Recover the amino acids of this structure.
C-alpha cells in the first residue's frame, strides 16, 4: 500500500510482512510472524497456565489480553489496511474502489464483576488504488461524479464486554444512539502453538441518515453491518501469566452499506472491506505517511478515550457524517 513502508521495514514484524508481500497494515492476515515455526527457531521456555476456552470468563480474559492489554494503564495501538470493494450487481464481480489504511488505540479496564470496559478510538484514510496516496477526492465509477472523501475519524468507540447469562460472552455497545447487547461468540482454534481467534459482530440498527433528509447520502432507514476479525497468535504468549498482553496479526473484514460521501443513496449494493491488521508496540511503527497525516489532521487520535467518556454516545462513519455535513439536494 505504501512503497516506503514496504521497502523499509521498521521492525521484525514489518520485515516478515514485507517478505510475505503484504501491502497494508491492519491487525492481521495470514501472518504467522508471532508464532514460531515447528521447523524454525524455538521460543524460549516460559511459564504457562493453560486456558480453558470453553469457560466464558477465561475466554473473555484471554480475548482482552490478545486484543489489548490487561493493564489498565497501558494503551494498545494497532494498524489496519487493505482494499474496499463495491458490490453493485449480482451478475458482476466485485469492483475494487479505493484503498484504506488506518489506526486505532484501545485501553481496557477490568470491572469487579469480571467484565471489561473498552475505551477505543479509531481513524482511517482512503487511498488511490494505483498510487497508494491518500485522497481527498474520488471519482465514483458508478455515477462519474467527483466526491469529497471523508476519512474515518471516530473519537469514541467504547464497549462493555461481559459474560451474559443469556448469550455467554457478549458485547454491550452504543450503535449510533441505540444501546444494544450483541452475542460475542469467541471462536478459538489451536494447532500446536498457533492460536486462531475469530470474533464477529452482526448488527442492524436505525440510521441517523434518513432517506427523507439525506436523499443522496442515505443508504436506507436501517444499517446492516457485519464485522469479522480473525487473529493469529502464540498460545504460549497468551498462557504466560507474567505478561498482560499477547501479540497478534490477522484480518478485518467488513460488509456494509455505501458510505455517505459516495453519494450512492439507496442504490442496490454495498461495500466489502478486506484488510490486514496487526498489534503494534508503539505508534512509531506506523507507516510514515499514515503517521504523518494523523499527526497533521487528527493528532488527538494517538490516545485512547479518557475514562470520563464512558456512557457517552459512540461515533461511526454515519453519525460523524451527519454531525459534520449538511444534506445534498435530491437529484432531479
Amino acid at each position: 500500500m505504501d512503497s516506503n513502508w514496504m521497502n523499509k521495514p521498521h521492525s521484525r514484524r514489518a520485515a516478515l510482512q514485507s517478505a510475505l508481500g503484504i501491502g497494508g497494515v491492519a491487525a492481521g492476515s495470514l501472518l504467522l510472524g508471532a508464532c514460531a515455526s515447528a521447523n524454525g527457531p524455538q521460543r524460549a521456555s516460559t511459564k504457562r497456565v493453560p486456558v480453558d476456552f470453553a469457560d466464558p470468563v477465561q475466554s473473555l480474559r484471554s480475548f482482552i489480553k490478545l486484543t489489548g492489554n490487561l493493564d489498565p494503564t497501558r494503551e494498545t495501538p494497532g494498524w489496519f489496511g487493505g482494499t474496499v470493494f463495491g458490490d453493485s450487481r449480482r451478475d458482476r464481480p466485485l469492483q475494487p474502489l479505493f484503498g484504506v489504511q488506518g489506526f486505532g488505540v484501545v485501553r481496557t479496564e477490568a470491572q469487579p464483576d469480571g467484565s471489561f470496559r473498552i475505551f477505543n478510538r479509531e481513524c482511517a484514510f482512503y487511498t488511490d488504488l494505483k498510487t497508494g496516496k491518500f485522497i481527498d477526492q474520488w471519482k465514483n465509477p458508478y455515477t462519474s461524479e467527483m466526491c469529497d472523501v471523508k476519512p474515518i475519524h471516530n473519537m469514541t468507540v467504547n464497549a462493555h464486554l461481559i459474560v451474559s447469562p443469556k448469550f455467554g460472552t457478549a458485547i454491550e455497545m452504543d450503535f449510533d444512539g441505540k444501546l444494544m447487547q450483541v452475542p460475542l461468540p469467541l471462536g478459538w482454534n489451536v494447532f500446536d502453538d498457533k492460536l486462531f481467534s475469530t470474533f464477529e459482530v452482526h448488527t442492524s440498527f436505525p440510521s441517523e441518515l434518513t432517506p427523507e433528509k439525506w436523499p443522496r447520502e442515505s443508504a436506507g432507514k436501517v444499517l446492516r453491518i457485519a464485522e469479522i476479525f480473525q487473529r493469529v497468535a502464540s498460545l504460549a504468549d497468551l498462557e504466560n501469566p507474567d505478561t498482560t498482553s499477547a501479540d497478534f496479526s490477522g484480518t478485518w473484514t467488513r460488509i456494509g452499506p455505501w458510505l455517505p460521501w459516495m453519494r450512492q443513496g439507496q442504490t442496490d449494493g454495498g461495500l466489502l472491506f478486506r484488510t490486514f491488521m496487526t498489534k503494534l508496540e508503539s505508534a512509531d511503527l506506523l507507516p510514515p505517511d499514515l503517521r504523518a497525516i494523523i499527526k497533521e489532521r487528527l493528532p488527538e487520535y494517538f490516545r485512547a478515550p479518557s475514562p470520563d467518556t464512558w456512557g457517552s454516545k459512540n461515533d461511526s462513519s454515519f453519525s460523524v457524517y451527519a454531525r459534520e455535513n449538511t444534506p445534498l439536494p435530491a437529484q432531479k
The two ends are 39 Å apart (CA to CA).
